[in-house]
Amino acid sequence: MTGRLVGIHLARFASSSPRIGGLFRGVSTAGSNSIFSKQLKSSPSEVPSSRYMNLPLISLTKSYSSAQTTNAVFAPPSSLGVQTEGASKGHCDAVSDVRLDDGGKQLIMSWEGGQSQTFPYVWLRDNCRCSKCFHPVALARLTMAHDLDVDVTVASADKSPEGDDVIIHWDDGHESQFPSDWLAAYRFVDSQRDQILNPKYKLWGADIDLQSFEFGELLEDDRALHDWLAELVIRGIAVVKNTPSEVGQLHRLGGRVAFLRSCNYGPTFQVKSKVDPSNAAYTSGPLALHTDLAYYIRQPGIQMLHCIEQAECTGGENLFSDGFKVALDLKEVDPEAFRLLTTVQFEFFDVGTDHYGKFHQYSRHPTIELDELKEIASITISDHSRDPMLRVPPDQVQPVYRALSKYCKMLVEPQNLLKYKMEKGDITTFNNRRALHGRSAFQVTKASGRHLEGSYLEWDEVNSRLRVLAAELQSK
Ligand code: OGA
Ligand code: ZN
Ligand code: ZN
């Protein structure tokens, strides 16, 4: 959804852009060819960041060896079933020594592999996994921060006879027991970040090796489902093929993940050329590259567009560009433009009437949003719904426009722009916060219309499903 554009006459956009065809190539079926066995096409396309250096997105290697750690109470951090970096660094060796540093109020653990780590007393006590402190079925902390003795002291600490666990006797009589490899995974320095939240991205351009997945397989096969979702994390775009050409298929596909994300346009929306369009997408005009629902504070994570009927004429191609790749290019060629786009917030609006009645959405976002590590986290662009409000000093206005325009021009440079005319039965699926999308104008005739059904998923649901699938596939 690009934003409301009331009163646009269909004829105004009709066939204003020439056919851009035949440029798409490289759709291959994934099948058993899991993404984990694929190499990057070229290394410069990889996000150059230390945080991406460690492991594949999901390792199917079990890292937790001790009997205790198979208990969900001591599940690995963040991603169930995901190998922790500790395992690869030799932290899973038995404990060789446990020492108390009462002055520093911390415990110092040494592993036989030679590593040692410190664990503050207050953290150990807060994370005690005994059944008084942590519900073993609900997997929830039962103690409360306002009751926590932040100066808590330890009477003694020791390794278990096998050296797998650390046992702590607290001065107040409480006792805690921690598996050493669980502690290693939670060590403070250099601990592994969630691999799904912090993936090794593969950046792409017009020559992307676009992956495709079979609709029927996604409904039946968990491995295919896992690989599709992982592709959405890593490259942020994939095509689903051979979907039945009728409305309702996104509910079926979304149901395999969890549930669809709704919006003012309904749980799913019908993209057709309409007489009274409540959105610019509901015309036959071109759509500039954009991210959907920029005017929402919580913008949808993933978009799905199902081609139910394709215009039998020129135009109507979908356009995609990797916003992360181009943002990194911009950072290199024009750091000041990059800085402006990461700091200046544009505001967005959408006003109209649709599925749930009248609406008035309003939100603000920087074009390029950075995370706490200053890595690119998401992109927001929507010419149709960008509000006139620009809260910068007037002398900053021209530089801000110059930066935005430069980024948008780079997004559509031939090497960056993927053009793909969907076939009946295709669902293009993409990270709405990364892969910008648009379309060329098309012509509606009596004999031929164009009909897409669209909907969204949230990253929370996709990430959760990925972690569960990875754990299940690993245990098979
Ligand atoms: C949309 C959209 C693309 C298309 O509905 O938000 O971008 O191909 N549609 O019609
Ligand atoms: Zn859109
Ligand atoms: Zn306890």
Automatic annotation (TrEMBL):
Report the GO terms under cellular component. mitochondrion
Q: Which cofactor does it need?
A: Fe(2+); L-ascorbate
Among its keywords, does the record have Cytoplasm? no
Keyword list (alphabetical) reads: Carnitine biosynthesis, Dioxygenase, Iron, Metal-binding, Oxidoreductase
Alphabetically, the GO molecular function entries are:
gamma-butyrobetaine dioxygenase activity; metal ion binding
SUPFAM superfamilies membership? Clavaminate synthase-like
By its UniProt entry, which Pfam families does this protein fall under?
A: GBBH-like_N, TauD
The GO biological-process annotations, alphabetized, read as: carnitine biosynthetic process
Q: Which InterPro entries match?
A: AlphaKG_dependent_hydroxylases (IPR050411), GBBH-like_N (IPR010376), GBBH-like_N_sf (IPR038492), TauD-like_sf (IPR042098), TauD/TfdA-like (IPR003819)
According to the entry, every stretch annotated as the TauD/TfdA-like domain falls at: 204-456
Q: In which pathway does it act?
A: Amine and polyamine biosynthesis; carnitine biosynthesis
Entry keyword Oxidoreductase: yes
UniProt record similarity statement = Belongs to the gamma-BBH/TMLD family.
The protein's name: Gamma-butyrobetaine dioxygenase
